[in-house]
Amino acid sequence: MALYRRPTAQLGLLLAAPLGWLAIAYLGSLALFLVTSFWSVDSFSGNVVTTPTLDNYIAIATTEVYRTIAVRTVVMATLVTATCVVVAFPIAFYISRVASPRIRGILVVSILLPLWSGYLVKVYAWRLILSQNGVLNSILGTVGLHGPGYSDIAVWLVESYLWLPYMIIPIVAGLERIPSSLLEASSDLGGRAGLTFRRVVLPLAVPAVVAGSIFTFSLTLGDYITPTLVSNTRFIGNVVYDFVGVAGNQPLAAAYAMVPVTIMLVYLLLARRFGALEAL
User: Fold this and answer.
1) What is the pTM assigned to this prediction?
2) Residue 202 belongs to a domain with what CATH number?
3) In a domain, 166, yes or no
4) Disulfide-capable partner of 167 in 84, 193, 198, 269 (CB 3.0 to 4.6 Å)?
5) Could you give the CA distance from residue 217 to residue 219 in angstroms, rounded to a whole number?
6) Does 51 fall in a domain?
7) With bands split at pLDDT 50, 70 and 90, how would you rate the model's confidence at 60?
8) Containing domain of residue 146, as a range?
């Protein structure tokens, strides 16, 4: 009864727990993560020295191998995102604008179904497919071809498969929000299907595409399991894992992990300009 006439207090109590969890567990861990990146490890004792220093960032900026791995990771994330857009858009367009309600339901379930299985299960399945005696080589061998094996191409294929649903669903939602009246108006003004698609559908679908790319790009940037299982190439996630688990240098790991965090911050700022955050 004391809160009955105080809706603001009611809302505050309701949001206290989730906002507290967000501030402490999420934002707090990110803040600690940033602070740790300015620490260092004593080369003699191996203990963490909490005196602030820029040595970790200087080492990352001046060491060629770190720069190469960072560029490789960004390029792979870009390729995976572009592949997901090319594959997802026709599927999403068919689901949202062409398919009957029954077919739409079947397609949506088939897209979401892989998300119910474990991440590792899917990667190991692809590892078997891409192996020397796997299904892919067996099929391609009949026409004298050979699969990519465990390589950068394998990483690209597996990552594109893993994150494709995260691109399809936002595009479907974005296309469904386009009023049918706009398409009818374009047709009434003499616009053919191709022209309507280029001038009406594509511009209005850009925020949804960018929204989906946030998922595919960020997930590829941070993934280290897929590159480990289907290739021998090192990406940012692999290096960070090695710094923590092998070298025991958490400050350097935190500093190097700030590279994808910074990239994603810039990416989110650009995505906001396209209205992608509203399309999520």
Assistant:
1) 0.90
2) 1.10.3720.10
3) yes
4) 84
5) 6
6) no
7) very high
8) 64-273
Q: How far apart are CA 170 and CA 207, in angstroms?
A: 9
Tokens (6 digits) for 261: 């965090």
The answer to the question of residue 18 being in a domain is no
Q: What is the 3-state secondary structure (H, E, C) of 181-241?
A: HHHHHHHHCCCCHHHHHHHHHHHHHHHHHHHHHHHHHHHHHHCCHHHHHHCCCCCHHHHHH
d(CA 107, CA 122): 20
Mean pLDDT for the stretch of residues 107-113: 91
Q: Region 199-222: what's the mean pLDDT?
A: 92
DSSP for 63-115, please give it: -HHHHHHHHHHHHHHHHHHHHHHHHHHHHHHIIIIIS-HHHHHHHHHHHHGGG
User: Based on the structure, what is the number of domains in the chain?
Assistant: 1
CA distance 140 to 104: 33
Tell me the CA distances in angstroms from 47 to 28, 43, 116, 241, 268, one per residue in order: 23, 8, 42, 19, 36
